[in-house]
Amino acid sequence: MAHREIGVAVLGLGNVGSEVVRILRSASADFEARVGAPLVLRGVAVRSLGPDRGVPEDLLTTDAQGLVERDDVDIVVEVIGGIEPVRTLILTALQSGKSVVTANKALLADYTGELASAAKNADVDLYFEAAVAGAIPVVRPLMQSLAGDRVDRVVGIVNGTTNYILSAMDATGADYADSLADARSLGYAEADPTADVEGYDAAAKAAILASLAFHTRVTAADVYREGISAITAADLASARAVGCTVKLLAMCERVPGRPDVADGEDWVSARVYPALVPLTHPLANVDGAFNAVVVEAEAAGRLMFYGQGAGGGPTASSVLGDLVSAARNKVHGGKGPDESTYAGLRIGPMGDTPTRYHVFMEVTDRVGVLSAVAAEFSKHDVSISVVRQEDTEVGASLVVVTHMALESALRDTVAALENLEYVNAVTSVLRMEGTGE
Amino acid sequence: MAHREIGVAVLGLGNVGSEVVRILRSASADFEARVGAPLVLRGVAVRSLGPDRGVPEDLLTTDAQGLVERDDVDIVVEVIGGIEPVRTLILTALQSGKSVVTANKALLADYTGELASAAKNADVDLYFEAAVAGAIPVVRPLMQSLAGDRVDRVVGIVNGTTNYILSAMDATGADYADSLADARSLGYAEADPTADVEGYDAAAKAAILASLAFHTRVTAADVYREGISAITAADLASARAVGCTVKLLAMCERVPGRPDVADGEDWVSARVYPALVPLTHPLANVDGAFNAVVVEAEAAGRLMFYGQGAGGGPTASSVLGDLVSAARNKVHGGKGPDESTYAGLRIGPMGDTPTRYHVFMEVTDRVGVLSAVAAEFSKHDVSISVVRQEDTEVGASLVVVTHMALESALRDTVAALENLEYVNAVTSVLRMEGTGE
Predict the structure, then answer these.
(1) To 10 degrees, what angle do helices A176-185 and A160-172 make?
(2) Whether residue A398 is found in the same domain as residue A356
(3) In this structure, are A208 and A318 located in the same domain?
(4) Out of A133, A168, A307, B408, which could bridge A291 as a Cys pair, Cβ 3.0 to 4.6 Å?
(5) Residues of chain A found within 8 Å of residue B140, distances taken between Cβ atoms
(6) Do B55 and B200 fall within a single domain?
(7) Is B339 within the bounds of a domain?
């Protein structure tokens, strides 16, 4: 316990920052015992000064750059979010020998390479457990617990806003707009919900998860992305009729190379879209603002991690766990694992990705429709798993669930269906989780 | 990549050892890339030599002590199990500067203090993720991810054999003996199933989990323990009637100190017993040989970790993750977290533990029975939540589910019930998970 103090700077005093500071100050004896040295808060960078921030005023500063550069700061905790000025602040911190703990998924999804290099060059830590799935340990399990295994697949519900909206649509039969309004009024959706509902937030997390899982650098731009704003009450009802619900999934897969294709190597598919999830699947029961991540690895089999994916307390828990790790390394020597990109797998296009489709169409109710539709699937080498036909006021609806096929073949099939004489409209096309085997 | 080789010795070549050796040899390029140096298998200690062990014969040895002492061994992986000679081998390894990775819950539950001291004195690592819940990362999340939080409670299904038996009893209505025989024939139960069905295995894991969660040394002897061999088909049916199933739970709780009691400090309750689990609880759906651990922490809220709790592959996955951590530390410096027992909380007796009871009794079907029974609960300050009365061939059965009360008060109530004139027998007493609020 004779070790010098470890100085901590916190950047940002929003929901997460406030909780980080509160816990750090109220449990200081525990932190000292767990780290082996006292953690001392040197300052908190805020946008504007003011009283009643729950922090002694002499700790507050608007000069984040100055705080980061202080000689008595050993670790910088960044919970501001966004790209600039945060990227510059973190690089400054790393380059001046300070370890960094961040919850910033948008920054990591695009700049992990740059930040990780800076950390490595300075022999300091860059920890970011809180960037994916809030309180749920996912980053550390992928980087450390599964470091001796081969991860094949990571599938997660990693955005609480969209999960709240889809859970509400499923439970109440409400449409998207009403459920979004409801989520907004309860504080689960922001005034501009684009980053959440269009899948950008989930795509950033998918990029981080895929990078860790496959030892390959994957950025947000590599992730195929569709949001939930086009999901209708009819989609949920149709999903329910085939024993499914709809979830926005972040999916990261190692796709086996095909012997008939040029390099034949395994490649990475990273994608975010709303998908039908069978009610028997562990992710189907993850409701509301909760998150869950399923990891499938060769030796471990299927693992699931479940918990609160957002909020001040849960995110602060992850941030503070990382802070303790970084501080222990400052006290006892050593550092956390570096970025691992040695596998350098190719990131493949969505068209080459094997998946399943759930196609909902309105058809004219007459003999021969089903066989014509089935023929189009067959022509494109797409095998059908389930067909469900129902009379409607204006004709009939036809739902086709396929077996696994290439996304490109499924797209071509749908395009062809739209030209069939008795198919009036392909109302919705959703993918479905699971191999169906 | 210019680092010298890291020498690895494996002790034991059963289900787990074979998988560890197979993966280590088949994925050596991945291990080298992830560690920053080649991992080289120096030898495998077995009880008796023989061909067809899946390992080159020149790597096999019956001299475990000699293998552990070799100068070119940096890390020892122990997957033999049991106390001796393993305890001596691990102490020898640690004292001679080798890091140790073990899956040995029985050893750790009793000797963590001795082993952790030896590791600390020699400045080497002692990792044991595989000792609890097989492939599921639980040890690392508790020691690292939640190191900045306050854990209040850990509840887990950590024994696959008993979970298989109880799942089968629930699904088929079969009795305990038949379900045990079935588990044996499928390889889920050993010829002598005592360690599993009487809760000793789960108690060892509860000791490890409680130690990590509460920064307090807890050994197997500190864990209150009941097994499942007295559970009947009638218990499962009765549980179902109140919306529950029965699971063998390992429970570790920080119980808040009472202001009216002498020291008033929080204390630790660690216990293993079969309990009613409401079907709405996330642990209720963990079936068969799967394990799951729920952690409740102040800031993080409720987390759940789910996966395969046993078997060669899943256990090897955890062992190899630890091996990579230990090897990275050998290459890059630093070490994993030491044992943390600074909190030194008192471990309280079962009688002081707050819990809920589900009491099943046979009564004479006449006016006044219910009021007499209710009066006994009231007399002992135990509040009743649900009463269910049913006519049977010989009279009537009465089930009482209580609210939270002290275990000692519940015991006294049951003793008093047995002396009531119209209560013919108290057939079964089970605890119930959840606060009921």
Answers:
(1) 120
(2) yes
(3) no
(4) A133
(5) 137, 140-141, 144-145
(6) no
(7) no
Which CATH number covers residue B358? 3.30.70.260
Q: Are residues B322 and B294 in the same domain?
A: no
- Residue A139 within a domain: no
Q: Which residue of A has its CA nearest to B323?
A: A148
CA distance B410 to chain A (A): 33
All residues of chain B having their beta carbon less than 8 Å from the beta carbon of residue A332 are 334-335
Q: In this structure, are strands A395-402 and B39-45 parallel, antiparallel, or unpaired?
A: unpaired
Are B210 and B130 members of one domain? no
Residue A437 pLDDT class (50, 70, 90 cuts): low
B110 and B164 part of one domain: no
A165-221 pLDDT, tens digit per residue, is: 999 999 999 999 999 999 999 988 998 999 999 999 999 999 999 999 999 999 999
Q: How many domains does chain A have?
A: 3
Rounded to whole angstroms, what are the CA distances from B376 to B400, B405, B411, B416? 12, 14, 12, 7
A297 lies in the same domain as A405: no
- Does A145 sit within 8 Å of B129, measured CB to CB? yes
Neighbours of A261 (CB within 10 A): 10
Q: What is the mean pLDDT of residues B198-204?
A: 97
Has residue B216 been placed in a domain? Answer: yes
Smallest CA-to-CA distance from A350 within A219, A223, A199, A230 is with A223
ipTM over 0.90: yes
Q: Give B148's contacts in chain A (Cβ within 8 Å).
A: 23, 31, 34, 316-317, 319-324
Tell me which residue of A311, A303, A327 sits closest to B144, measured CA to CA.
A327
DSSP letter (8 states) at residue B137: -
Q: How far apart are CA A60 and CA B129, in angstroms?
A: 41
Is residue A330 annotated as a catalytic residue, yes or no?
no
Burial of A29 (0-12, 13-18, 19+ CB in 10 A): exposed
Chain B residues inside the 8 Å CB shell of A319: 148
Gap from A229 CA to chain B (nearest CA, Å): 29
Tokens 């370890």 belong to which residue? A99
Between B27, B144, B297, which is nearest A140 by CB? B144
Domain of A265: which CATH number? Answer: 3.30.360.10
Q: Helices H, strands E: what count in chain A?
A: 14, 18
What pLDDT is recorded for position B1?
42
DSSP reduced 3-state for B352: helix
Give the domain range for residue A252: 144-305
Residue B1, domain member (yes or no): no
Q: What is the dihedral of CA B80, B81, B84, B85, to 10 degrees?
A: 10
- A126 is an annotated ligand-binding site residue: no
Please tell me whether residues B317 and B426 are part of one structural domain.
no
The residue type at B372: A
Whichever domain contains A38, its CATH number is 3.40.50.720
Q: Given B33, B135, B300, which is nearest A317 (Cβ)?
A: B300
